Amino acid sequence: MDILVEDSRENWLEAMDDEELLLMVNARFYEAFENGDLHSLDEVWSHGETVRCVHPGWGTIVGWRSIRKSWESIIANGQSIRFSLRNVVPRIYNDLGVIVLEEEIVFGGDQVPQIVRAVATNLFERSGSEWKMVHHHASPVMLNAGNELSYRFN
Amino acid sequence: MDILVEDSRENWLEAMDDEELLLMVNARFYEAFENGDLHSLDEVWSHGETVRCVHPGWGTIVGWRSIRKSWESIIANGQSIRFSLRNVVPRIYNDLGVIVLEEEIVFGGDQVPQIVRAVATNLFERSGSEWKMVHHHASPVMLNAGNELSYRFN
Fold this sequence. Notes:
The structure is a homodimer. Chain A has four helices and six strands; from the N terminus they run αααββαββββ. Chain A is an alpha+beta fold and about 150 residues long.
Protein backbone atom coordinates (compact mmCIF):
# COMPACT_ATOMS: atom_id res chain seq x y z
CA MET A 1 0.00 0.00 0.00
CA ASP A 2 1.32 3.43 -0.99
CA ILE A 3 0.93 6.29 1.38
CA LEU A 4 0.77 9.68 -0.23
CA VAL A 5 2.28 12.30 2.03
CA GLU A 6 1.63 15.88 1.15
CA ASP A 7 4.92 17.68 0.72
CA SER A 8 5.45 20.68 2.91
CA ARG A 9 7.68 23.36 1.41
CA GLU A 10 10.34 22.35 3.92
CA ASN A 11 10.32 18.72 2.79
CA TRP A 12 10.39 19.85 -0.79
CA LEU A 13 13.48 21.94 -0.10
CA GLU A 14 15.14 19.00 1.64
CA ALA A 15 14.48 16.84 -1.39
CA MET A 16 16.25 19.23 -3.72
CA ASP A 17 19.86 18.48 -4.23
CA ASP A 18 22.62 20.95 -3.62
CA GLU A 19 22.95 21.94 -7.26
CA GLU A 20 19.24 22.57 -7.66
CA LEU A 21 19.29 24.82 -4.59
CA LEU A 22 22.26 26.69 -6.01
CA LEU A 23 20.52 27.21 -9.36
CA MET A 24 17.37 28.34 -7.57
CA VAL A 25 19.22 31.04 -5.64
CA ASN A 26 20.92 32.17 -8.84
CA ALA A 27 17.50 32.42 -10.53
CA ARG A 28 16.13 34.37 -7.55
CA PHE A 29 18.97 36.86 -7.96
CA TYR A 30 17.96 37.63 -11.55
CA GLU A 31 14.24 37.71 -10.70
CA ALA A 32 14.94 40.18 -7.91
CA PHE A 33 16.93 42.30 -10.34
CA GLU A 34 14.14 42.23 -12.96
CA ASN A 35 11.52 43.08 -10.37
CA GLY A 36 13.58 45.81 -8.70
CA ASP A 37 13.07 43.87 -5.47
CA LEU A 38 15.63 45.07 -2.92
CA HIS A 39 14.17 42.86 -0.22
CA SER A 40 14.89 39.74 -2.30
CA LEU A 41 18.37 41.01 -3.11
CA ASP A 42 18.89 41.39 0.66
CA GLU A 43 17.98 37.72 1.02
CA VAL A 44 20.05 36.44 -1.89
CA TRP A 45 23.28 38.22 -0.99
CA SER A 46 25.66 37.55 1.87
CA HIS A 47 25.98 40.71 3.97
CA GLY A 48 29.71 40.39 4.55
CA GLU A 49 32.26 43.17 4.28
CA THR A 50 34.32 41.31 1.68
CA VAL A 51 31.60 40.37 -0.82
CA ARG A 52 32.22 41.81 -4.27
CA CYS A 53 30.14 43.04 -7.17
CA VAL A 54 31.19 44.11 -10.65
CA HIS A 55 28.40 45.56 -12.80
CA PRO A 56 29.13 45.58 -16.56
CA GLY A 57 31.75 48.21 -17.26
CA TRP A 58 32.10 49.18 -13.61
CA GLY A 59 34.98 48.71 -11.19
CA THR A 60 34.76 46.41 -8.18
CA ILE A 61 32.37 47.32 -5.39
CA VAL A 62 33.41 45.76 -2.07
CA GLY A 63 31.16 45.04 0.91
CA TRP A 64 27.41 44.60 1.16
CA ARG A 65 26.65 48.18 2.26
CA SER A 66 28.21 49.62 -0.89
CA ILE A 67 26.81 46.88 -3.11
CA ARG A 68 23.31 47.47 -1.79
CA LYS A 69 23.66 51.19 -2.58
CA SER A 70 24.58 50.30 -6.15
CA TRP A 71 21.42 48.19 -6.46
CA GLU A 72 19.38 51.03 -4.96
CA SER A 73 20.68 53.43 -7.61
CA ILE A 74 20.17 50.93 -10.45
CA ILE A 75 16.62 50.22 -9.30
CA ALA A 76 15.88 53.92 -8.70
CA ASN A 77 16.84 54.49 -12.32
CA GLY A 78 13.56 52.76 -13.10
CA GLN A 79 14.63 51.20 -16.36
CA SER A 80 12.76 48.07 -17.47
CA ILE A 81 15.17 45.15 -17.67
CA ARG A 82 14.59 41.49 -18.61
CA PHE A 83 17.13 38.68 -18.61
CA SER A 84 17.41 35.54 -20.70
CA LEU A 85 20.04 33.30 -19.18
CA ARG A 86 21.93 30.87 -21.41
CA ASN A 87 24.55 28.20 -20.90
CA VAL A 88 24.05 28.29 -17.14
CA VAL A 89 26.76 26.04 -15.74
CA PRO A 90 26.80 25.28 -11.98
CA ARG A 91 29.67 23.67 -10.14
CA ILE A 92 29.99 22.99 -6.42
CA TYR A 93 33.27 22.85 -4.51
CA ASN A 94 32.23 21.88 -1.00
CA ASP A 95 31.11 25.20 0.49
CA LEU A 96 31.51 27.29 -2.64
CA GLY A 97 29.09 27.24 -5.55
CA VAL A 98 30.21 28.65 -8.90
CA ILE A 99 27.79 29.57 -11.67
CA VAL A 100 28.95 30.89 -15.01
CA LEU A 101 26.42 31.95 -17.58
CA GLU A 102 25.57 34.23 -20.46
CA GLU A 103 23.05 37.01 -20.01
CA GLU A 104 20.93 38.39 -22.81
CA ILE A 105 19.56 41.61 -21.42
CA VAL A 106 16.56 43.43 -22.87
CA PHE A 107 16.24 47.05 -21.82
CA GLY A 108 13.41 49.31 -22.68
CA GLY A 109 9.87 48.34 -21.82
CA ASP A 110 7.53 50.67 -23.72
CA GLN A 111 10.34 52.24 -25.67
CA VAL A 112 12.17 50.47 -28.45
CA PRO A 113 13.85 47.58 -26.68
CA GLN A 114 17.59 47.27 -26.81
CA ILE A 115 19.34 43.94 -26.44
CA VAL A 116 22.84 43.59 -25.05
CA ARG A 117 24.90 40.57 -24.13
CA ALA A 118 26.97 39.99 -21.02
CA VAL A 119 28.76 37.14 -19.30
CA ALA A 120 28.73 36.57 -15.56
CA THR A 121 30.68 34.69 -12.93
CA ASN A 122 28.57 34.28 -9.79
CA LEU A 123 29.92 32.78 -6.57
CA PHE A 124 27.83 31.58 -3.63
CA GLU A 125 28.97 30.48 -0.19
CA ARG A 126 27.15 27.85 1.79
CA SER A 127 25.62 29.33 4.92
CA GLY A 128 23.91 26.57 6.92
CA SER A 129 21.44 25.00 4.51
CA GLU A 130 21.42 28.04 2.22
CA TRP A 131 23.59 29.45 -0.54
CA LYS A 132 24.41 33.16 -0.29
CA MET A 133 25.83 35.23 -3.13
CA VAL A 134 29.31 36.53 -2.33
CA HIS A 135 30.49 37.57 -5.79
CA HIS A 136 28.80 38.82 -8.94
CA HIS A 137 31.02 39.72 -11.88
CA ALA A 138 29.17 40.69 -15.05
CA SER A 139 30.87 42.07 -18.13
CA PRO A 140 29.71 43.41 -21.48
CA VAL A 141 30.28 41.36 -24.61
CA MET A 142 31.49 43.83 -27.22
CA LEU A 143 33.32 41.50 -29.57
CA ASN A 144 32.67 38.05 -30.92
CA ALA A 145 35.08 35.71 -29.17
CA GLY A 146 37.80 34.56 -31.49
CA ASN A 147 37.05 37.10 -34.19
CA GLU A 148 39.36 39.75 -32.87
CA LEU A 149 43.10 39.58 -32.86
CA SER A 150 43.59 42.45 -30.47
CA TYR A 151 43.36 42.24 -26.72
CA ARG A 152 42.58 45.97 -26.63
CA PHE A 153 39.10 46.94 -25.75
CA ASN A 154 39.03 50.64 -26.48
CA MET B 1 74.38 21.46 17.04
CA ASP B 2 72.55 23.00 14.09
CA ILE B 3 72.68 21.29 10.79
CA LEU B 4 72.26 23.57 7.87
CA VAL B 5 70.54 21.77 5.04
CA GLU B 6 70.63 23.43 1.69
CA ASP B 7 67.10 23.97 0.48
CA SER B 8 66.18 22.24 -2.71
CA ARG B 9 63.51 23.90 -4.80
CA GLU B 10 61.22 21.07 -3.79
CA ASN B 11 61.63 21.77 -0.07
CA TRP B 12 61.10 25.42 -0.68
CA LEU B 13 57.81 24.67 -2.43
CA GLU B 14 56.72 22.44 0.43
CA ALA B 15 57.37 25.22 2.90
CA MET B 16 55.07 27.60 1.07
CA ASP B 17 51.54 27.61 2.30
CA ASP B 18 48.57 26.99 0.08
CA GLU B 19 47.73 30.65 -0.35
CA GLU B 20 51.29 31.57 -1.31
CA LEU B 21 51.27 28.82 -3.94
CA LEU B 22 47.97 30.09 -5.28
CA LEU B 23 49.27 33.66 -5.51
CA MET B 24 52.43 32.41 -7.19
CA VAL B 25 50.48 30.62 -9.93
CA ASN B 26 48.33 33.70 -10.44
CA ALA B 27 51.50 35.80 -10.82
CA ARG B 28 52.92 33.27 -13.29
CA PHE B 29 49.78 33.64 -15.38
CA TYR B 30 50.30 37.39 -15.76
CA GLU B 31 54.05 37.00 -16.36
CA ALA B 32 53.36 34.47 -19.10
CA PHE B 33 50.89 36.88 -20.65
CA GLU B 34 53.37 39.79 -20.51
CA ASN B 35 56.12 37.65 -21.99
CA GLY B 36 53.93 36.08 -24.67
CA ASP B 37 55.03 32.74 -23.26
CA LEU B 38 52.61 30.07 -24.50
CA HIS B 39 54.63 27.31 -22.84
CA SER B 40 54.06 28.90 -19.42
CA LEU B 41 50.38 29.42 -20.19
CA ASP B 42 50.22 25.70 -21.00
CA GLU B 43 51.60 25.01 -17.53
CA VAL B 44 49.41 27.47 -15.65
CA TRP B 45 46.09 26.41 -17.19
CA SER B 46 44.12 23.23 -16.65
CA HIS B 47 43.65 21.52 -20.02
CA GLY B 48 40.07 20.42 -19.39
CA GLU B 49 37.19 20.74 -21.81
CA THR B 50 35.12 22.84 -19.42
CA VAL B 51 37.65 25.52 -18.45
CA ARG B 52 36.49 29.00 -19.34
CA CYS B 53 38.09 32.27 -20.39
CA VAL B 54 36.56 35.70 -20.87
CA HIS B 55 38.92 38.32 -22.30
CA PRO B 56 37.78 41.93 -21.75
CA GLY B 57 34.82 42.63 -23.98
CA TRP B 58 34.72 39.10 -25.38
CA GLY B 59 32.20 36.32 -24.92
CA THR B 60 33.02 33.12 -23.08
CA ILE B 61 35.57 30.75 -24.61
CA VAL B 62 35.07 27.17 -23.40
CA GLY B 63 37.71 24.42 -23.33
CA TRP B 64 41.49 24.57 -23.33
CA ARG B 65 41.91 24.01 -27.09
CA SER B 66 39.86 27.10 -27.92
CA ILE B 67 41.33 29.12 -25.07
CA ARG B 68 44.86 28.31 -26.21
CA LYS B 69 44.00 29.50 -29.73
CA SER B 70 42.81 32.81 -28.27
CA TRP B 71 46.15 33.23 -26.49
CA GLU B 72 47.98 32.34 -29.70
CA SER B 73 46.14 35.07 -31.58
CA ILE B 74 46.63 37.61 -28.80
CA ILE B 75 50.35 36.84 -28.61
CA ALA B 76 50.71 36.78 -32.43
CA ASN B 77 49.30 40.30 -32.39
CA GLY B 78 52.67 41.26 -30.92
CA GLN B 79 51.46 44.18 -28.85
CA SER B 80 53.55 45.11 -25.81
CA ILE B 81 51.51 44.67 -22.65
CA ARG B 82 52.40 45.22 -19.00
CA PHE B 83 50.25 44.58 -15.94
CA SER B 84 50.12 46.22 -12.55
CA LEU B 85 47.97 44.15 -10.26
CA ARG B 86 46.16 45.82 -7.36
CA ASN B 87 43.94 44.66 -4.52
CA VAL B 88 44.83 41.04 -5.17
CA VAL B 89 42.56 39.06 -2.84
CA PRO B 90 43.02 35.26 -2.60
CA ARG B 91 40.59 32.90 -0.95
CA ILE B 92 40.73 29.13 -0.75
CA TYR B 93 37.70 26.83 -0.52
CA ASN B 94 39.22 23.37 -0.15
CA ASP B 95 40.10 22.45 -3.74
CA LEU B 96 39.13 25.75 -5.34
CA GLY B 97 41.22 28.89 -5.15
CA VAL B 98 39.59 32.22 -5.97
CA ILE B 99 41.57 35.36 -6.76
CA VAL B 100 39.89 38.66 -7.50
CA LEU B 101 42.02 41.62 -8.47
CA GLU B 102 42.26 44.84 -10.41
CA GLU B 103 44.46 45.03 -13.48
CA GLU B 104 46.10 48.23 -14.70
CA ILE B 105 47.20 47.39 -18.22
CA VAL B 106 49.79 49.41 -20.11
CA PHE B 107 49.77 48.86 -23.87
CA GLY B 108 52.22 50.32 -26.26
CA GLY B 109 55.92 49.78 -25.84
CA ASP B 110 57.75 52.24 -28.08
CA GLN B 111 54.57 53.98 -29.08
CA VAL B 112 52.68 56.31 -26.77
CA PRO B 113 51.56 54.00 -23.98
CA GLN B 114 47.88 53.62 -23.29
CA ILE B 115 46.60 52.66 -19.85
CA VAL B 116 43.33 50.83 -19.33
CA ARG B 117 41.76 49.31 -16.25
CA ALA B 118 40.13 45.93 -15.87
CA VAL B 119 38.89 43.67 -13.10
CA ALA B 120 39.38 39.93 -13.04
CA THR B 121 37.96 36.86 -11.34
CA ASN B 122 40.43 33.98 -11.57
CA LEU B 123 39.60 30.46 -10.39
CA PHE B 124 42.13 27.67 -9.83
CA GLU B 125 41.50 24.01 -9.07
CA ARG B 126 43.83 21.97 -6.94
CA SER B 127 45.48 19.24 -8.99
CA GLY B 128 47.67 17.13 -6.72
CA SER B 129 50.08 19.61 -5.11
CA GLU B 130 49.51 22.24 -7.79
CA TRP B 131 46.91 24.88 -8.57
CA LYS B 132 45.69 24.98 -12.19
CA MET B 133 43.72 27.87 -13.70
CA VAL B 134 40.21 26.81 -14.71
CA HIS B 135 38.55 30.21 -15.16
CA HIS B 136 39.74 33.67 -16.14
CA HIS B 137 37.14 36.40 -16.40
CA ALA B 138 38.50 39.86 -17.13
CA SER B 139 36.32 42.86 -17.89
CA PRO B 140 36.97 46.45 -18.89
CA VAL B 141 36.32 49.23 -16.39
CA MET B 142 34.56 51.95 -18.36
CA LEU B 143 32.78 53.78 -15.55
CA ASN B 144 33.68 54.77 -12.05
CA ALA B 145 31.77 52.46 -9.75
CA GLY B 146 28.94 54.27 -8.05
CA ASN B 147 29.12 57.35 -10.25
CA GLU B 148 26.65 56.09 -12.82
CA LEU B 149 22.97 55.62 -12.23
CA SER B 150 22.41 53.54 -15.32
CA TYR B 151 23.05 49.85 -15.63
CA ARG B 152 23.37 50.27 -19.38
CA PHE B 153 26.78 49.94 -20.82
CA ASN B 154 26.35 51.10 -24.37
